[in-house]
Amino acid sequence: MAVQKVDHQKAFNMLFFLEFWERFGYYGLQAVLASFFVKSLGMEDAESFVVFGAFSAMVYGYVALGGYIGDKVLGTQRTILLGAITLMIGYALMAFAGTDKSMVFFALAVVACGNGIFKANPSSLLSKLYADDQSHLDSAFTMYYMAVNIGSFISMLLVPIIGGRYGLSLGFSICAMGLVLAVGSFVGFRHLVRGIDSPAGARPLSFTKLGGVILGIIAMVFASAWMLTNLTVAHWLLAIIGTGVFLVFIKMIFASHGAERSKMIAALILIVEAIAFFTLYQQMPTSLNFFAIKNVEHSILGLTVSDPEVFQTLNPFWIMLASPILAWMYSHFGDKGTDLSMPAKFAIGMSLCAVSFLVIGFSGRFANAQGIVSVWWLVASYLFQSLGELLISGLGLSMISKLVPQRLIGFLMGAWFLTSAISAVTGAWVATFTAVPKDVTDPLLTLPIYTDVFTKIGICTAVLTVVMFLAVPLLNRLINKEDKKAVA
């Protein structure tokens, strides 16, 4: 048993670093993308939010397809490798694109498709690794989520600073290097997860299927690049994909019975709740980022911050600090059988998100004569938002692993990530309410726009939180339902 435990830990460590390097690449790009659209491509704030939202929607909207390929076509491990290589190519193309808008959109399309192929599969592999250890699943996924945020913290610090000094081509090259290391770490230590895969991964590789998937990715890249210049089509396609995935999910619910059906209904409700959270999360790289640039003092602890995009690192900073504590609490109380239920954690997480936006809305009352607020309001807001994130986004994959049958895990991991795709569009729409014209640069004029919108977001989120708390008992009954044992 001792040997198995050591192997188990090593396998987790490999997946931890795989996700670390992949997220290092993605969040380095995300940290500067909306402001890159404005500064380098000449977009207005509102247009940059909408294009950023469309790109993010593709990034997460394609994940269900990647989950299906991992489950049914190539296998989980092969799909991970294919997705990571595609992402590496996409970031390299961003480094060479410069200010060529068509090339930028083509590179972003490659990144979106690569992320779609990759994203669901490492978490699917992790769920299989802990299939026989459900009591520690929340802890494992919380630590896994910590990998996401360590990688994002470092890249969100490096890319804006290096990009600001030496040009974003070098910054995007750093993102590509993150994927080189992700591919290298997975190839080098893949033996640690030997035998842990989907049924498709247990079969010999079909080069016909591999070739078909690669051709499909190429077609998706060209279609995605075109859609970034035709956003109405992109939004309609997302609506069709989202509707299709949720209809399939509902069909799966009706095809199931007893306790399995009850758990899947609870999962569907929690997924819908998560859409509201991810709409709030989408404000960090868009409206909150621009608020930090225009209305927050550019210094912290006596240090001048010349690239205010780095304030986004407050999110992964708080995640890194809180993740080990929450992971220990989940494991400790899980062993005792006294851990909070998943619906309760979601509701508490949403209440913290409400507080985070109310804090920023309230900060305007304490702005100086120039319309600039203290950076500590932003620090506090990110603290509450990050704790809420850990309780919702950080546990979302664990929730899917617990509530849906293993035979559907890859597809429904994709359905979970689809919530981010839908929220990318709704979040971008919300962010446009904070958009100001290019010629308006006076902080005294931009401050009331931001604080008014953030206050309204906080109030709406608080109302939703009350509804979520009221739904906790019903969801707990669905989750804890057990099938009656047949009488001999």
Question: How would you sum up this structure, described in words?
Answer:
Helices cover 79% and strands 1% of the residues. The protein is built from 18 helices and 2 strands. The protein has a two-stranded antiparallel sheet. Helix 7 (137-166) packs across helix 16 (375-403), helix 11 runs antiparallel to helix 17 and helix 14 crosses helix 16 (375-403). The protein starts with a helix and ends in an 8-residue tail after the last helix. The model is unreliable at 1-6 (pLDDT under 50).
Main features:
488 residues, mainly alpha, two-stranded antiparallel ribbon, 2 strands, 1% strand
Q: What pattern of helices and strands is seen along the backbone?
A: HHHHHHHHHHHHHEEHHHHH
Specify the helix fraction band: over 70%
Give the N-to-C terminal Cα separation. 36 Å
What would you call the structural class? mainly alpha
Short summary:
With 488 residues, the protein is an all-alpha fold.
Provide the fold topology:
Layout: H1 2-39, H2 45-61, H3 63-73, H4 76-97, H5 101-118, H6 120-129, H7 137-166, H8 168-189, H9 199-202, H10 207-227, H11 231-255, H12 258-281, H13 287-295, E1 299-300, E2 303-304, H14 314-336, H15 342-363, H16 375-403, H17 409-431, H18 443-480
Antiparallel strand pairs: 1-2
Helix pairs in contact: 1-2, 1-6, 1-7, 1-8, 2-5, 2-11, 2-17, 3-4, 3-5, 3-17, 4-5, 4-6, 4-8, 5-10, 6-17, 7-8, 7-14, 7-16, 11-12, 11-17, 12-15, 12-16, 12-17, 12-18, 13-18, 14-16, 15-16, 15-18, 16-17
